[in-house]
Amino acid sequence: MTATEDLLRECRAQRSNEPTRALIAAAQAFVRDALRSSEPQAAMAAALRESLSPTALSWAAIVLGSAVESGADPTPVGRVLFEAFDRASAKVLDTSVSKAERDAVSDALPRLAQGVVAHLARMQSLRDELATDGALLDRLTERAFENPSVRWVREAIERVSGPLVVLHPLSGKGAKLRIENVSNCFHLFSLVQCAIEEQLPGGRAARKVVVQCARGAIEAQTDDQAWWHYGDPRSPKPDIAASIWGEAAVRTIPEIDGARVLLLWPPLLGARTWDSGFFGPFLDAMPANVVFERALTDDEAREWTARLGLDGLGQN
């Protein structure tokens, strides 16, 4: 019997929320094999296309997630696992199935979602593809009201990583930052402010509670305030109509030469505020942060201001 067959047998036999010793042993053997070859995951992908009970599917997802967290390739099974999650999570709102079946799905979804997030964290291209499917995101949002663990998967899909350039047009200064796993712009604004602090005009020391909450170190009820008007780089002057809106997805921020770009103008009509509800949910596999890499050189800042039609605004 192969490691995949052994694991599937034990997943199907699992009846409680605590894994049996036999399941743990089968999982360890499967992970060892998956680190040597993609064949066990390919065999598991074939099994996931068949009918597995919600409980069996959820324990398989946990083991598959463990394998990729240990270094196994996520691609042989990642898409198939997400599709299985999509089918299973649909049942939380399906009144044509029995209450017992809906309850079994609801009980299994946290484990299933955990395994899916572990794969999505390592499959940027799949996340990018899924994020363009508005109907899918709407479905997941609806299901999340019934089972909050669905929100983990939706959040993972929307999280973005990559380079960010911020420019302060009135001073002619700027910086290169790096976004790590951020989905919405209010969360991004807080993390940008935590990263910059006093390194650009208009910045200040960030409150400790905001730093900790925004980076997922603690969970607390707090709020934050915009230090700047966050402007669209396609507008050469501060304009409410050309705002980067806090409720928007980070994916919507314009990219120029491979980097997302924000303009930091003085606040317009008072500073916007938001609460720490925009910082969650925290995902162990995808912690959110923004890293200050370095200030732009004077030459780089001048090149950016010229490229964006901001010449004459800076003081350099």
Q: What can you see in these coordinates?
A:
This protein has 316 residues and is α+β, with helices and mostly antiparallel strands. The chain is built from 12 helices and 8 strands. The strands form 2 sheets. Strands 1, 2, 4, 5, 6 and 8 form a 6-stranded mixed beta sheet that branches. It has a two-stranded antiparallel sheet with strand order 3-7. Helix 5 runs antiparallel to helix 6. The longest helix has 22 residues, at 99-120.
Q: SSE order in H/E notation?
A: HHHHHHHHHEEHHEEEEEEH
Derived from helix and strand composition plus strand pairing, the structural class reads: alpha+beta
- The Rg value, from CA coordinates, equals 23 Å
**Strands, count:** 8
* Amount of helix: 40-55%
Number of helices: 12
Beta strand %: 5-15%
Which residue ranges are poorly predicted, with pLDDT under 50 across at least 5 consecutive positions?
A: none
Main sheet characteristics: 6 strands, mixed
What does the average pLDDT come to? 94
Overall, the morphology is elongated
| N-C termini distance | 71 Å
Explain the layout of strands and helices:
Blueprint: H1 3-13, H2 21-36, H3 39-48, H4 54-69, H5 78-89, H6 99-120, H7 124-131, H8 134-146, H9 149-158, E1 160-168, E2 173-182, H10 185-196, H11 208-214, E3 223-225, E4 229-231, E5 255-256, E6 259-265, E7 273-275, E8 289-295, H12 298-307
Helix pairs in contact: 1-2, 1-4, 2-4, 4-6, 5-6, 6-9, 8-9
